[in-house]
Amino acid sequence: MSEDVNEQDPWFFRKSVLNMTGSFEFGGQLFSTEEVIEAITPILTDERMQRIDEVLKHRTFNMIPVMENIYDRGNISAVMRSAEAFGFLRCHIIEAKDASFKAANRVTKGADKWMDTRVFTTAAASISELKSEGYQVFATSLEASKPLETVDFTRKTAIILGNEKEGVSSEMQKLCDGHVVIPMKGFSQSFNISVAAALIFYHAAFQRQSQLGGGDLNDLEVEQVRANYFLRCLEAPEKILLRWKNSNLADSPS
Fold first, then answer.
1. Could you give the CA distance from residue 72 to residue 46 in angstroms, rounded to a whole number?
2. CATH number, domain at 115?
3. Which residues of the chain have pLDDT under 70?
4. Helix, strand or coil for residue 209?
5. Whether 170 contacts 204, CB under 8 Å
6. Would residue 158 count as lying in a domain?
7. What is the DSSP string of 168-204?
8. pLDDT tens digits, residue range 3-19?
9. Structurally, how many domains does the chain consist of?
């Protein structure tokens, strides 16, 4: 099945969830984070592992894009690509049960593989999770909004991006802490959602880099994400892990 077809699957973005529990199950066997890394390390090239190490230095869970009822899956893909490129690990997608999505030929170019995608069916469920974890939540809007540059992105922040027609829903606007706008000086008074997302992400990443100096994963999170990334580098990790465990069992003294 082609990547384009996969991405048009309504459940496509639900499949990209990072396992941060420290325990992975394959073939009925449990593997710790350390075991996953130990088993897969000999298989990956030095270049691939160095690239993962470099990427992990800039990763954060503390900036989250939230896409609400986006009709064009190409736009979701573009937002995810920008978020991943700027080091953001997690995104929320709110999909109304009766939403009619427009199929798209554009793809995430693999960005979904490196992200933690949470899918919700209501704005309230998404915002409830964010607020319980201490995020400040801002919706993009042209009315009663503060300029983007006044937002403190060094704090845990979620940015709501509304759909192509109505923008952020009235329900979502009531749940947010405030509204932000990208200042525009021309006749045009709005950006395409993917362009708006890229501009916001660049500003947030630049502010975080200049004030915090890069990513902010703790040591445990780094290793957990590393294990997920190692697994996602392989077509059939289950076979490799089970072979590794059986080999260790065979070598262990009776």
1. 38
2. 3.40.1280.10
3. 1-15, 96-109, 144, 189, 250-254
4. helix
5. no
6. yes
7. S-HHHHHHSSEEEE----SS-----HHHHHHHHHHHH
8. 444 544 544 555 678 99
9. 1
What does DSSP say about strands 29-32 and 63-68: parallel, antiparallel, or unpaired? unpaired
Q: Could you give the 3-state DSSP secondary structure of residue 162?
A: coil
What's the CA gap between 235 and 86, in Å, rounded? Answer: 26
Residue 172 lies in a domain: yes
Do β-strands 29-32 and 23-26 pair in parallel, antiparallel, or remain unpaired?
antiparallel
69 in a domain, yes or no? yes
Report how far residue 170's alpha carbon sits from residue 124's, in angstroms, rounded to the nearest whole number. 12
Picking from 155, 148, 149, the residue whose alpha carbon sits closest to that of residue 208 is 155
pTM for this entry: 0.87
The length of the chain in residues reads: 254
CB 102 within 8 A of CB 71: yes
Give the position of tokens 């593997």.
31
In a domain, 199, yes or no: yes
Q: What is the distance, to the nearest Å, from the Cα of residue 217 to the centroid of all Cα atoms in its chain?
A: 14
User: What amino acid occupies position 106?
Assistant: R
How far, in Å, CA of 248 to CA of 186, rounded?
66
Each residue's pLDDT tens digit, 179-231: 998 888 787 767 889 999 999 999 999 999 999 998 999 999 999 999 999 99
The Cβ of residue 133 has, within 10 Å, a number of other Cβ atoms equal to 12
Taking phi over 0 as left and psi of -120 to 50 as alpha, with beta for the rest, 70 belongs to beta
Q: Which domain does 131 fall in, by range?
A: 63-212
